[in-house]
Amino acid sequence: MKRWRMLLLLEFKRYGKALPGIVTAILILVFVVGAMAVSGQYLMQTMTVEDVQDLSQESGESKISAAIAIQDKSRAVNFVKSMIKNINSVDALLNIQYVEEEEGLRLLEEQKISVLMIVREKTISGIMNGENVPIEVVFPDHSGYEAAIFKEFADAAVRMLSVTQAAIYSIYDLYDEYDVYEYKDGAIERMNVDYIKSVLGREFIYQEETVSATGEIPMSLYYLCGSLVLFSLFLPIMLLFVGKSKKDNISAMLFRSGTGHIKQVVAELIPIVSVYLLIGVLFGGVCTVGKLTGAVWMKDISLLQIWSLVVTIIPVGLLNGAYALFVCRWIRSIFGQVMFLFLTGLFQGVVTGCLIPTLLLPKALAAWGKFTLADGMKKSFLSVFSGETAVDEFCIMLLESVIFILAAAWMERKTYGNRMPERRRAK
Amino acid sequence: MEHKKAYIRVSQVEKRYGKKKVLSGVNMEAEKGQCVAILGLNGSGKSTLLSILAGVQKANRGTAKIGDIDILKQRKKAAEFIGYVPQENPLIPDLTVKDNLKLWYCDSPLDIKKELREGFLSMLGINEMLSIPVKKLSGGMKKRVSIGISMWANPGVLLLDEPEAALDLVAKKKIREYLRAYREQGGTVIIATHEETQLDICDKAYVMKSGTLHEIPTGIRGEQLLEEMEV
Question: B93 to chain A, minimum CA–CA distance in Å?
């Protein structure tokens, strides 16, 4: 134990001596990660609904071609046509053309349209008086996803018409009760128009609500958490060069004198976690000063949240340090280690939404997020702002750290417990 | 302080790396105060044998004892009696010589200050380079520091793996002087080498051939020695 304590002390000394290099590396990392986070945030803030619509319009090829053959000549039908034309969601997904039934069937046969809808005579008035003349929907022989999407539209329309029908019947009852039923025919046309106008003109009915891809957490805080995860993932690469300068055969010599491989890994890990903590305390200190002096960039965050983030850095540092120590023992070349840590860090950052929120990622890519180490880190940081507890994430990170410590020690033993590194011989 | 007295007896030691048999039934003996050389071509298994005796790696078969202690079964206990200087110096380059010594002597029966002042560390000339970072030392200086740290437990046996490789004449002389003094105090030295000049300081010599040791006279040199070494 005496030797282990001395080893730990000397590891701290090594990191202390390398401090200027570490600080420089950290500043570079802060700059790079900060630039990534700011770019992501800027991208998210400048991407408006119009951009999304533009994108949809550009991909006009992906719209579903539909044709409607209308035989009902009532005034309400014409009004419905003009309303549908102005609904953005319909326009974004469907290319609608109005045709005669024969032409529609021909287009369907030639596979120029994906669906044909036939509105027979007296369809609208049939809805009102209960005759219920069906609207026919014709699909080609081999219909694909277009049919499924169109079915959704048709279902929505049916639900809307059912409500309309119920309302109309209620008005009939009212006329009947007040003994003015003879006026109903004149009222129907106007009622149809007014009612359908209200139903289809959704802006009169629905409230506008802004939704964020980052959920309940403000975008700036979301990206702060994302930056902390990215920083934590990439920091071991910077520390790798300090750790690497220790000769491999020290391990074998320490082992034979009673300092086991697990103890050696832990002695290397503690200074790494201390570097994380030191950075966390510096970050906390800067933020505290910013808060106390009323800095604008600190308006969305409380002192408790700042120091909760600092506490969260400890298990995050432990996990990243243990993971890096394992990688260093698994991959022997420094280039391989750097590349592996960089690429896995980048992959984890992307799939857990540290660069672009997962909501906007392809589902297949975002699905990988929950299998990464960064998932627990990100959830832990986000929990500081969401108010949720992150006990599970903390426990998982500790468990993962223990696994990596054991794996690193096993790898060390496997490599150097069986063979001393030999001097490179001149050829 | 006098070194712990010991002798080494190795019997039928075998070692495989996968399917490759490196040592196949090695037998050797070294008495207290003796200097034994193990010669052999590169890759013949000298270093493997030394690392087994040092307790760094395990043998597949056989027995090796230092006094009454079974080296292969009580590796940590045996390590207290055996100092080991591997080919690659087991030093931390970023730290000074003093820090490197501290790592090992923090748990030593010896008084490091005394050893630096008038003991064997002084004899190795280590007291003159305490504040120098290891990465700035020459090859010879590093080797002397490596020998110095291998002595932390005041062992009775010193295993040296090619101690004079790539060293200049002055460094070689310093190390030989130290080894002579160590043996005068009752220490046993086993040196793995492929340099015949090393035989000058040895009482006994073996040649490693085809994974086994063959004893040879210490006086043979040149072509005769080459013939002994060739498989």
Answer: 7
Which residue of chain A has the CA closest to B71?
A256
Query: What's the number of CA atoms in the CB half-sphere (13 Å) around residue B158?
Result: 28
Nearest to B211 by CA among B15, B24, B64: B24
Half-sphere exposure of A7 (CA within 13 A, CB side): 27
Nearest by CB to A247, from B17, B90, B162: name it.
Answer: B90
DSSP codes of every residue in A39-65 = HHHHHHHH--HHHHHHHHHHTGGGSEE
| CA atoms of A286 and A24, how far apart (whole Å) | 18
Do A29 and A235 contact (CB within 8 A), yes or no? Answer: yes
Query: Rounded to an integer, what distance in angstroms lies between the CA atom of residue B86 and that of residue B72?
Result: 18
Cα B98 from chain centroid (whole Å): 22
Contact A246 B58 (CB under 8 A): no
Q: Are B171 and B139 in contact (CB under 8 A)?
A: yes
B47 in contact with chain A, both atoms CB, cutoff 8 A? yes
CB atoms B103 and A3 under 8 Å: yes
A257-to-A4, A269, B54 alpha-carbon distances in Å: 11, 20, 10
Residue A340 carries which DSSP code?
H
- Cβ separation A14–B92 shorter than 8 A: yes
Which of B90, B94, B165 is closest, CB to CB, to A253?
Answer: B90
Question: Which of B87, B135, B142, B160 is the best residue to mutate to test the A interface, defined by the most A CB atoms within 10 Å of its own CB?
Answer: B87
Apex CA A183: angle with CA A177 and CA A184, to 5°? 75
B29 and chain A in contact, CB less than 8 A: no
Residues whose CB is less than 8 angstroms from the CB of residue B227 and which lie 6 or more positions away in sequence, other chains included: none
- Tokens of residue A3, six digits: 């030797």
* DSSP H or E stretch at residue A274: helix A261-292
Check CB contact under 8 Å for B95 and A421: no
CB < 8 Å to B46, chain A: none
Q: Return per-residue pLDDT of chain A as tens, 427 residues.
A: 788 999 999 989 888 888 888 888 888 888 887 787 777 767 766 655 445 444 444 444 567 788 888 887 777 777 677 767 666 667 767 788 888 888 888 888 887 888 888 888 877 777 666 677 777 888 876 666 666 667 776 777 777 767 767 777 777 788 788 877 777 766 766 766 676 666 666 554 455 555 566 667 777 888 888 889 999 999 888 887 766 656 667 888 888 888 888 999 999 999 999 999 999 999 999 999 988 888 887 887 888 889 999 999 999 999 999 999 999 888 888 889 889 999 999 999 989 888 877 777 777 888 888 899 999 999 999 888 887 888 899 999 999 999 999 999 998 887 765 554 443 333 3
Name the 3-class secondary structure at B124.
coil
pTM (2 d.p.): 0.70
DSSP string, A359-422: GGS-HHHHTTGGGSHHHHHHHHHHHHHH----HHHHHHHHHHHHHHHHHHHHHHHHHHSS-PPP
For chain A, residues classed under CATH 3.40.1710 are: 60-207
Chain B environment of A244 (Cβ under 8 Å): none
Domain A60-207: give its CATH code.
3.40.1710
Chain A residues closer than 8 Å to B92 by CB: 10, 14, 245-247, 250
Write out the two tokens for A182. Answer: 């003879």
